[in-house]
Amino acid sequence: MAAPTTGARMVAPLTWRVARLVERRVETPSAQTLVLDVPGWPGHEPGQHLDIRLTAADGYQAARSYSLAGPAEGERIAVTVQRVPDGEVSPYLTDTYAEGDPVEVRGPVGGWFVWRTDETAPVLLVAGGSGVVPLMAMVRARRAAGSRAPFRLIYSVRTPDDVIYADELRRRTREDQGLDVAYVYTRAAPEGWRGEPHRIGLADVNTHGWPPDLEPLCYVCGPTGFVETVADLLVGLGHPTRRVKTERFGPTG
Amino acid sequence: MTDMSYLDGNMLDGPLRDIFAVDLSSAIGRCDHCGTTGPVAGLHVYSHAPGLIGRCPACTEVMLRLVRAPDQAWLDLRGTTYLRVPMALDQPHPRPL
Protein backbone atom coordinates (compact mmCIF):
# COMPACT_ATOMS: atom_id res chain seq x y z
CA MET A 1 0.00 0.00 0.00
CA ALA A 2 1.69 3.20 -1.16
CA ALA A 3 1.26 6.05 1.28
CA PRO A 4 0.32 9.37 -0.26
CA THR A 5 3.17 11.85 -0.05
CA THR A 6 0.76 14.61 0.89
CA GLY A 7 -2.16 14.44 3.26
CA ALA A 8 -2.68 12.61 6.47
CA ARG A 9 -1.61 9.04 6.39
CA MET A 10 -4.70 7.28 7.62
CA VAL A 11 -3.36 4.20 9.17
CA ALA A 12 -4.87 1.17 10.74
CA PRO A 13 -4.91 1.34 14.54
CA LEU A 14 -1.60 0.24 15.90
CA THR A 15 -1.83 -3.13 17.51
CA TRP A 16 0.71 -5.23 19.34
CA ARG A 17 1.69 -8.22 17.19
CA VAL A 18 3.63 -11.28 18.21
CA ALA A 19 7.00 -11.50 16.45
CA ARG A 20 9.51 -14.33 16.56
CA LEU A 21 13.27 -14.25 16.22
CA VAL A 22 14.51 -15.98 13.06
CA GLU A 23 18.12 -14.78 12.89
CA ARG A 24 20.70 -12.93 14.98
CA ARG A 25 23.77 -11.17 13.57
CA VAL A 26 26.58 -9.86 15.76
CA GLU A 27 27.57 -6.40 14.46
CA THR A 28 29.97 -5.14 17.16
CA PRO A 29 30.82 -6.29 20.72
CA SER A 30 27.74 -4.42 21.94
CA ALA A 31 25.35 -4.35 18.97
CA GLN A 32 23.36 -7.11 17.33
CA THR A 33 20.88 -7.22 14.49
CA LEU A 34 17.74 -9.23 15.18
CA VAL A 35 15.69 -10.46 12.23
CA LEU A 36 12.08 -10.89 13.28
CA ASP A 37 9.20 -12.62 11.58
CA VAL A 38 6.05 -10.55 12.13
CA PRO A 39 2.86 -12.09 10.72
CA GLY A 40 0.72 -9.31 9.25
CA TRP A 41 3.52 -6.70 9.12
CA PRO A 42 2.10 -3.88 6.93
CA GLY A 43 5.43 -2.63 5.54
CA HIS A 44 7.27 0.56 6.48
CA GLU A 45 9.29 3.51 5.24
CA PRO A 46 13.04 4.01 5.77
CA GLY A 47 13.56 5.91 9.03
CA GLN A 48 10.54 4.55 10.87
CA HIS A 49 10.77 2.64 14.14
CA LEU A 50 8.78 0.17 16.16
CA ASP A 51 8.13 -0.46 19.82
CA ILE A 52 9.18 -3.77 21.37
CA ARG A 53 7.40 -4.84 24.56
CA LEU A 54 8.50 -7.46 27.04
CA THR A 55 6.24 -8.92 29.71
CA ALA A 56 7.71 -10.55 32.80
CA ALA A 57 6.15 -13.57 34.51
CA ASP A 58 4.61 -11.27 37.14
CA GLY A 59 2.94 -9.14 34.47
CA TYR A 60 5.46 -6.27 34.61
CA GLN A 61 5.88 -4.72 31.16
CA ALA A 62 8.63 -2.63 29.59
CA ALA A 63 8.58 -1.20 26.05
CA ARG A 64 11.37 0.44 24.05
CA SER A 65 11.58 1.98 20.58
CA TYR A 66 14.00 0.55 18.02
CA SER A 67 14.68 1.84 14.54
CA LEU A 68 14.00 -0.49 11.64
CA ALA A 69 17.35 -1.27 10.01
CA GLY A 70 16.25 -1.82 6.41
CA PRO A 71 13.36 -2.51 4.07
CA ALA A 72 11.01 -5.33 5.04
CA GLU A 73 11.38 -8.63 3.23
CA GLY A 74 7.79 -9.76 3.20
CA GLU A 75 6.93 -10.15 6.86
CA ARG A 76 10.57 -10.17 7.98
CA ILE A 77 12.01 -7.04 9.53
CA ALA A 78 15.35 -6.23 11.15
CA VAL A 79 16.28 -4.08 14.13
CA THR A 80 19.76 -3.44 15.48
CA VAL A 81 19.96 -3.39 19.26
CA GLN A 82 22.77 -1.69 21.17
CA ARG A 83 23.21 -3.31 24.56
CA VAL A 84 22.76 -0.82 27.41
CA PRO A 85 24.48 -2.46 30.41
CA ASP A 86 21.82 -1.61 33.03
CA GLY A 87 18.93 -1.59 30.58
CA GLU A 88 15.63 -3.32 31.19
CA VAL A 89 15.06 -4.46 27.61
CA SER A 90 18.26 -4.49 25.53
CA PRO A 91 20.27 -7.00 27.63
CA TYR A 92 17.41 -9.48 27.36
CA LEU A 93 17.25 -9.02 23.59
CA THR A 94 21.02 -9.38 23.13
CA ASP A 95 21.79 -12.09 25.71
CA THR A 96 18.71 -14.22 26.38
CA TYR A 97 16.17 -13.88 23.59
CA ALA A 98 16.48 -17.04 21.47
CA GLU A 99 15.44 -18.14 18.00
CA GLY A 100 11.74 -18.95 17.91
CA ASP A 101 10.98 -16.96 21.08
CA PRO A 102 8.04 -14.55 20.92
CA VAL A 103 8.19 -10.83 21.61
CA GLU A 104 5.51 -8.17 21.13
CA VAL A 105 6.02 -5.43 18.54
CA ARG A 106 3.95 -2.42 17.54
CA GLY A 107 4.62 -0.48 14.40
CA PRO A 108 5.68 0.96 12.17
CA VAL A 109 5.63 4.36 13.87
CA GLY A 110 7.03 7.76 12.94
CA GLY A 111 6.11 9.65 9.79
CA TRP A 112 8.48 12.60 10.15
CA PHE A 113 12.00 11.18 10.26
CA VAL A 114 11.49 9.38 6.97
CA TRP A 115 13.23 9.47 3.59
CA ARG A 116 10.97 8.63 0.66
CA THR A 117 12.60 6.76 -2.20
CA ASP A 118 11.08 9.09 -4.82
CA GLU A 119 13.01 12.08 -3.41
CA THR A 120 15.72 13.30 -5.80
CA ALA A 121 17.44 15.93 -3.61
CA PRO A 122 20.95 15.18 -2.31
CA VAL A 123 20.87 13.63 1.15
CA LEU A 124 23.23 14.14 4.09
CA LEU A 125 23.04 11.53 6.83
CA VAL A 126 24.86 12.22 10.10
CA ALA A 127 25.03 9.35 12.59
CA GLY A 128 26.27 9.24 16.16
CA GLY A 129 26.89 5.67 17.38
CA SER A 130 23.79 3.49 17.07
CA GLY A 131 22.05 6.47 15.44
CA VAL A 132 23.32 4.91 12.22
CA VAL A 133 20.47 2.37 12.25
CA PRO A 134 17.60 4.38 10.69
CA LEU A 135 20.10 6.07 8.35
CA MET A 136 21.32 2.66 7.18
CA ALA A 137 17.66 1.83 6.49
CA MET A 138 17.66 4.82 4.10
CA VAL A 139 20.93 3.70 2.45
CA ARG A 140 19.55 0.19 1.97
CA ALA A 141 16.19 1.47 0.70
CA ARG A 142 17.98 3.74 -1.79
CA ARG A 143 19.76 0.77 -3.30
CA ALA A 144 16.67 -1.43 -3.28
CA ALA A 145 14.64 1.25 -5.08
CA GLY A 146 17.38 1.98 -7.62
CA SER A 147 17.41 5.63 -6.51
CA ARG A 148 20.10 7.91 -7.96
CA ALA A 149 19.81 10.53 -5.19
CA PRO A 150 23.36 11.41 -4.08
CA PHE A 151 23.95 10.29 -0.49
CA ARG A 152 26.64 11.28 1.98
CA LEU A 153 26.95 9.66 5.39
CA ILE A 154 29.07 11.08 8.20
CA TYR A 155 29.37 8.42 10.89
CA SER A 156 30.78 9.31 14.31
CA VAL A 157 32.02 6.40 16.43
CA ARG A 158 34.25 5.99 19.48
CA THR A 159 36.68 3.52 17.90
CA PRO A 160 36.89 1.52 14.65
CA ASP A 161 35.52 -1.53 16.53
CA ASP A 162 32.27 0.34 17.16
CA VAL A 163 31.34 0.70 13.49
CA ILE A 164 28.02 -1.08 12.95
CA TYR A 165 27.57 -2.56 9.43
CA ALA A 166 31.30 -1.97 8.76
CA ASP A 167 31.70 -4.56 5.98
CA GLU A 168 28.46 -3.62 4.27
CA LEU A 169 29.33 0.08 4.30
CA ARG A 170 32.74 -0.69 2.77
CA ARG A 171 31.07 -2.74 0.04
CA ARG A 172 28.33 -0.19 -0.61
CA THR A 173 30.73 2.73 -1.05
CA ARG A 174 32.27 0.68 -3.89
CA GLU A 175 29.03 -0.63 -5.40
CA ASP A 176 26.21 1.83 -4.63
CA GLN A 177 27.02 4.65 -7.00
CA GLY A 178 26.60 8.05 -5.44
CA LEU A 179 27.14 6.97 -1.82
CA ASP A 180 30.05 8.43 0.17
CA VAL A 181 30.88 7.56 3.78
CA ALA A 182 33.17 9.57 6.07
CA TYR A 183 34.05 8.55 9.63
CA VAL A 184 34.72 10.66 12.70
CA TYR A 185 36.49 8.87 15.58
CA THR A 186 36.06 10.32 19.05
CA ARG A 187 38.41 8.11 21.11
CA ALA A 188 40.70 6.03 18.90
CA ALA A 189 41.29 6.19 15.17
CA PRO A 190 42.50 3.35 12.90
CA GLU A 191 46.11 2.98 11.74
CA GLY A 192 46.99 5.50 9.08
CA TRP A 193 44.11 7.83 9.98
CA ARG A 194 44.92 11.46 9.33
CA GLY A 195 44.15 13.71 12.24
CA GLU A 196 43.42 13.22 15.93
CA PRO A 197 40.34 11.61 17.48
CA HIS A 198 37.81 14.38 18.10
CA ARG A 199 34.13 15.10 18.52
CA ILE A 200 32.30 16.06 15.35
CA GLY A 201 32.64 19.75 14.52
CA LEU A 202 32.17 22.36 11.87
CA ALA A 203 35.07 21.18 9.70
CA ASP A 204 33.66 17.63 9.48
CA VAL A 205 30.16 18.77 8.54
CA ASN A 206 31.50 21.38 6.13
CA THR A 207 33.97 19.04 4.41
CA HIS A 208 31.78 15.95 4.14
CA GLY A 209 28.31 17.49 3.87
CA TRP A 210 26.55 19.30 1.02
CA PRO A 211 26.52 23.07 0.62
CA PRO A 212 23.11 24.61 1.39
CA ASP A 213 22.75 25.88 -2.22
CA LEU A 214 22.19 22.28 -3.34
CA GLU A 215 19.15 22.19 -1.01
CA PRO A 216 19.95 18.79 0.47
CA LEU A 217 17.78 16.90 2.92
CA CYS A 218 19.66 16.37 6.20
CA TYR A 219 18.93 13.59 8.67
CA VAL A 220 20.72 13.55 12.02
CA CYS A 221 20.37 10.69 14.49
CA GLY A 222 22.23 9.91 17.70
CA PRO A 223 22.44 10.85 21.37
CA THR A 224 20.69 14.11 22.28
CA GLY A 225 23.88 16.18 22.73
CA PHE A 226 25.31 14.94 19.44
CA VAL A 227 22.12 15.73 17.52
CA GLU A 228 21.92 19.17 19.13
CA THR A 229 25.51 19.99 18.08
CA VAL A 230 25.15 18.76 14.50
CA ALA A 231 21.73 20.36 13.92
CA ASP A 232 23.07 23.71 15.17
CA LEU A 233 26.11 23.41 12.87
CA LEU A 234 23.92 22.65 9.86
CA VAL A 235 21.54 25.53 10.56
CA GLY A 236 24.55 27.79 11.17
CA LEU A 237 25.92 26.82 7.74
CA GLY A 238 22.67 28.00 6.18
CA HIS A 239 20.50 24.87 5.95
CA PRO A 240 16.84 25.74 6.65
CA THR A 241 15.54 24.06 9.81
CA ARG A 242 12.71 22.35 7.89
CA ARG A 243 15.35 20.50 5.81
CA VAL A 244 17.19 19.26 8.92
CA LYS A 245 15.33 16.33 10.45
CA THR A 246 16.49 14.94 13.76
CA GLU A 247 15.94 11.88 15.89
CA ARG A 248 17.38 11.85 19.37
CA PHE A 249 18.21 8.65 21.20
CA GLY A 250 17.88 8.45 24.94
CA PRO A 251 19.91 5.98 27.02
CA THR A 252 16.79 4.06 27.96
CA GLY A 253 18.07 0.52 27.35
CA MET B 1 17.04 24.31 30.56
CA THR B 2 20.36 22.99 29.35
CA ASP B 3 20.04 19.33 30.31
CA MET B 4 20.26 16.86 27.46
CA SER B 5 17.87 14.31 28.89
CA TYR B 6 15.07 14.87 26.42
CA LEU B 7 14.05 12.94 23.34
CA ASP B 8 12.33 13.86 20.09
CA GLY B 9 8.67 14.22 19.36
CA ASN B 10 9.17 11.28 16.96
CA MET B 11 8.75 8.99 19.94
CA LEU B 12 5.26 10.38 20.67
CA ASP B 13 4.01 8.73 17.52
CA GLY B 14 3.43 5.30 19.05
CA PRO B 15 1.71 6.55 22.22
CA LEU B 16 -0.45 9.06 20.26
CA ARG B 17 -1.40 6.41 17.72
CA ASP B 18 -3.09 4.59 20.60
CA ILE B 19 -5.54 7.51 20.58
CA PHE B 20 -5.56 8.97 17.04
CA ALA B 21 -6.04 7.31 13.67
CA VAL B 22 -3.52 9.60 11.94
CA ASP B 23 0.20 9.96 12.28
CA LEU B 24 0.57 13.20 14.23
CA SER B 25 4.38 13.45 14.03
CA SER B 26 4.09 15.51 10.82
CA ALA B 27 1.25 17.68 12.17
CA ILE B 28 2.18 21.32 12.80
CA GLY B 29 1.56 22.62 16.30
CA ARG B 30 1.60 26.22 17.52
CA CYS B 31 3.08 26.95 20.93
CA ASP B 32 0.50 28.89 22.92
CA HIS B 33 3.26 30.59 24.88
CA CYS B 34 5.64 31.97 22.20
CA GLY B 35 3.75 31.37 18.94
CA THR B 36 6.44 29.19 17.34
CA THR B 37 5.05 26.65 14.90
CA GLY B 38 6.67 23.32 14.01
CA PRO B 39 6.09 19.60 13.63
CA VAL B 40 5.08 17.51 16.64
CA ALA B 41 8.19 15.43 15.82
CA GLY B 42 10.31 18.47 16.75
CA LEU B 43 9.03 18.78 20.33
CA HIS B 44 11.49 18.02 23.12
CA VAL B 45 10.02 15.08 24.98
CA TYR B 46 10.80 14.27 28.60
CA SER B 47 9.87 10.73 29.46
CA HIS B 48 11.03 10.37 33.08
CA ALA B 49 7.93 11.99 34.56
CA PRO B 50 4.88 9.81 35.20
CA GLY B 51 3.90 10.25 31.58
CA LEU B 52 5.29 12.10 28.57
CA ILE B 53 5.89 15.84 28.51
CA GLY B 54 6.35 17.60 25.15
CA ARG B 55 8.02 21.02 25.34
CA CYS B 56 8.36 23.76 22.72
CA PRO B 57 11.88 23.55 21.24
CA ALA B 58 12.03 27.36 21.09
CA CYS B 59 10.82 28.51 24.53
CA THR B 60 10.70 25.15 26.46
CA GLU B 61 7.13 25.73 27.71
CA VAL B 62 4.99 22.59 28.00
CA MET B 63 2.82 22.04 24.91
CA LEU B 64 1.62 18.49 25.52
CA ARG B 65 1.16 16.11 28.43
CA LEU B 66 0.22 12.47 27.92
CA VAL B 67 -0.39 10.10 30.81
CA ARG B 68 -1.39 6.48 30.32
CA ALA B 69 -3.17 4.12 32.65
CA PRO B 70 -3.97 0.54 31.69
CA ASP B 71 -7.54 1.45 30.70
CA GLN B 72 -7.39 5.18 29.86
CA ALA B 73 -5.23 8.00 28.57
CA TRP B 74 -5.11 11.65 29.62
CA LEU B 75 -4.02 14.08 26.90
CA ASP B 76 -3.52 17.70 28.00
CA LEU B 77 -2.90 20.13 25.13
CA ARG B 78 -3.43 23.44 26.93
CA GLY B 79 0.00 24.70 25.81
CA THR B 80 -0.88 24.14 22.14
CA THR B 81 -2.98 26.75 20.33
CA TYR B 82 -3.75 24.39 17.47
CA LEU B 83 -2.59 21.29 15.65
CA ARG B 84 -2.63 21.59 11.85
CA VAL B 85 -2.99 18.08 10.47
CA PRO B 86 -2.21 17.42 6.78
CA MET B 87 -5.22 15.76 5.18
CA ALA B 88 -5.72 13.88 1.95
CA LEU B 89 -7.51 16.07 -0.58
CA ASP B 90 -11.22 15.70 0.10
CA GLN B 91 -12.71 15.59 -3.39
CA PRO B 92 -15.54 13.08 -3.50
CA HIS B 93 -16.37 13.66 -7.18
CA PRO B 94 -14.16 14.44 -10.15
CA ARG B 95 -16.41 17.39 -11.12
CA PRO B 96 -19.54 19.14 -9.91
CA LEU B 97 -22.55 16.88 -10.32
UniProtKB/TrEMBL annotation, chain A:
Keywords: 2Fe-2S, Iron, Iron-sulfur, Metal-binding. InterPro entries: Cbr1-like_FAD-bd_dom (IPR008333), FAD-bd_FR_type (IPR017927), Flavoprot_Pyr_Nucl_cyt_Rdtase (IPR001709), FNR_nucleotide-bd (IPR039261), MRET (IPR050415), OxRdtase_FAD/NAD-bd (IPR001433), Riboflavin_synthase-like_b-brl (IPR017938). The keyword Iron-sulfur applies. Its cofactor is FAD. It comes from the Bacteria. Coiled coil: none annotated. The keyword Iron applies. Residues 14-115 form the FAD-binding FR-type domain. Gene3D superfamilies: Nucleotide-binding domain of ferredoxin-NADP reductase (FNR) module (3.40.50.80), Translation factors (2.40.30.10). This is Ferredoxin reductase.
Automatic annotation (TrEMBL), chain B:
It holds the Pfam family DUF6510. This is DUF6510 family protein.
